[in-house]
Amino acid sequence: MLCAPPPTLRPWPRPRLLPAPRCSGGDAAPSPSPSAGSVRRLVLPPEGRAKLDPRPDRDFYAFPRLVTHVDDGFIAALTALYRERLRAGWDVLDLMSSWVSHLPPDVAFRRVVGHGLNAQELARNPRLDYFFVKDLNADDHRLELADGSFDAVLCTVSVQYLQYPEKVFAEIFRVLKPGGVCIVSFSNRMFYEKAIGAWREGTAYSRVQLVTQYFQCVEGFTEPEVVRRLPPAAGGSSGGSPLAAVMRLFGMASSDPFYAVISYRNFKPM
Q1: Average pLDDT for residues 148-177, to the nearest whole number?
Q2: pTM of the model
Q3: Which of 69, 96, 153, 203 could form a disulfide with 158 if both were Cys (CB 3.0 to 4.6 A apart)?
Q4: For 224-257, b where at least 16 C-beta lie within 10 A, e where not — what string?
Q5: Three-state SS for 63?
């Protein structure tokens, strides 16, 4: 694949701590627990974190992949969900992002910050105001972002690669404003050799439960909400066949199933 020379990278400014939003109706936000944001328990055993390809992730993603990893149906469902849950004027963090964010094109956000592993991909993303590169599977899992600085954190078709999700979700909690939302979306596609063992060996149901547990293991997240949009063929005679299952595994199905797990920091605004 021939790629154009990478554009000039945009500078990463010092983040500012923004005031927390108020609940609608004038109700005061509930006081957070002193232990809010702490990891209550580990979700994954050591073997569940292992990858078939032990190379550092930054080496694997060194070459830009300017493709979409899900189909148009998935993208439409994701954009519709963002339109429903996100608000104009918000500060948004697109975690583990790439060259496209699938945000509603007609919604103007105050700031969209991108994170990923390939600077060329991130530089081509027209929705990002700023971006930074960091390997969340390396020793330092901390995001260099201010506490309570985002209204929303998004993670699209990438959660399957996190080897230390408990620490990363604790960081998501930290950078969210009280009442801020985190939306984790995924399908059945993956780079098989870079997905963790618990994801590779799981089912659609177990993967939803896994992401649900990632939220539940961090003190202070609200009870996770699951959104599913399954393709019509999944319930038909051919959708449940072994061949159809293999085709979906390798991304050859007629349409991709859509899953999203959603949770809020401390409370869900009304």
Answers
A1: 96
A2: 0.78
A3: 96
A4: bbebebebeebeeeebeeeebeeebeeeebebbb
A5: coil
